[in-house]
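Ops channel
N.P.: pipeline sanity check, posting one input/output pair.
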């Protein structure tokens, strides 16, 4: 009888030890996954803090006059902003673009405007490429804007 009691106690002890180590392994695996996610999130936030995001938008004003508004919706300063017009500019009169560009510094949530005029037979869309430098790396974006 004592041997049976001892075997039951030993079996219970072994099951407890097995369950403990199995549960401990699951917790450690889960902790590793959570740490990896936290590190990735932190790295992405650091990249966002150092990145500018420069975009353009066309605003229709009075007859034939348009404003190409360039803005920075990122969290970092954009420096040395350049503009390449990738589409035809037939029927468009670009007003003093060369004097304003490259634009030296565009802070987060700031903007500047470029004015142009439309004449008869102007193209309905304008494809542009914006290029800028920020603390993360040299970046660019391409957009097709409706005139």
């Amino acid at each position: 009888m004592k041997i049976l009691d001892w075997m039951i106690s030993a079996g219970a002890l072994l099951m407890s030890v097995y369950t403990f180590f199995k549960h401990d392994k699951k917790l450690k695996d889960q902790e590793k996954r959570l740490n990896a996610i936290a590190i990735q999130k932190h790295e992405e936030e650091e990249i966002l803090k150092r990145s500018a995001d420069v975009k353009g938008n066309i605003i229709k004003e009075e007859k034939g006059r348009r404003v190409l508004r360039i803005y920075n919706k990122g969290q970092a300063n954009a420096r040395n902003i350049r503009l390449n017009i990738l589409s035809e500019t037939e029927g468009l009169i670009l007003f003093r673009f060369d004097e304003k560009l490259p634009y030296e510094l565009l802070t987060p949530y700031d903007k500047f405007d470029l004015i142009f005029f439309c004449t008869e037979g102007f193209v309905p869309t304008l494809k542009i490429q914006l290029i800028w430098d920020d603390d993360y790396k040299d970046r660019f974006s391409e957009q097709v804007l409706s005139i």
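N.P.: looks fine end to end. Strands lie at 54-60, 65-72, 78-85, 92-95, 103-106, 111-118, 125-133, 138-146.
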